[in-house]
Amino acid sequence: MKIKTLQLLFVVMTISSSFAQTEKGKFLIGLNTPLSFSSSSTRIIDNSGNSTDNNSSTSFTFSPQVGYSIIDNLFVGLDLSLSFGNVDNQAVETSSSSYVFSPFVKYYYPTNNDFNFFGQFKYGVGRFNSESLNLGAILNPALPDTVESKSNMEQLLVGLGVGYFVHEKLNIELSLNYQNTFYDSFNNISGDQLAIDTFGASIGFSLFL
């Protein structure tokens, strides 16, 4: 009987500890990085077996966020998504960057151990900028040296994930996300609009203070 009582007490204490990490009045400091970070290069190989570098590209995105729990397990806050990219081929070199400010809502469901589940939603607005260095202008001075493109952005993200407390205040998190990104004027010349739907994953951490 005493053993069962001690076991029950241990379970209650563990659950209470899990909830204490995300209880009302806690601050959240987080950082998420999509697993889609990439760096690649391509080569053209002719019939003689000779290869020529064709293009290379890199891209990286990360999202720091700060939140506050208004009730147990429910956090609201602000997320800043920053993205950088570069594409370099034989004719054009393009670099791009973007930022999006997004209010977010994030709800945690603690378990009776160090694992937890969460859902998140964020919607924000920002700006996209790109600049292309036209290497063909060296051969044809009539072509512009650079071409700039700017666009306003809207971004929506919905995600579900699982976390693990490696420390009483530090949660390592993995999430699966759906993201919709809308550019109001992707090409400044034609005024075309662009919408991108993305299904992906991200890994990050949350620190609770």
Explained architecture:
This protein is mostly beta strands. It has one domain (2-41, 52-208): Porin, CATH 2.40.160.20. It is built from 1 helix and 9 strands. It has one helix at residues 2-20; strands at residues 27-34, 38-45, 51-71, 74-89, 92-110, 115-134, 146-167, 170-183, 194-208. Strands 1-3-4-5-6-7-8-9 form an 8-stranded antiparallel barrel.
Q: Can you write the helix and strand succession as a string?
A: HEEEEEEEEE
Q: What integer is the average pLDDT?
A: 79
Radius of gyration: 23 Å
Structure annotation, total helices: 1
- Biggest pleated-sheet summary: 8 strands, antiparallel, barrel
- Uncertain segments of ≥5 residues (pLDDT<50)? 5-18, 38-44
Helix/sheet category: mainly beta
Distance between the amino and carboxyl termini: 38 Å
Number of domains: 1
* Spatial order of strands in the largest sheet: 1-3-4-5-6-7-8-9
| Number of beta strands | 9
Shape: elongated
CATH class value? Mainly Beta
Looking at the overall shape, the CATH architecture is Beta Barrel
CATH topology: Porin
What fraction of the residues are assigned to beta strands by DSSP?
Answer: over 45%
Helical content, roughly? under 10%
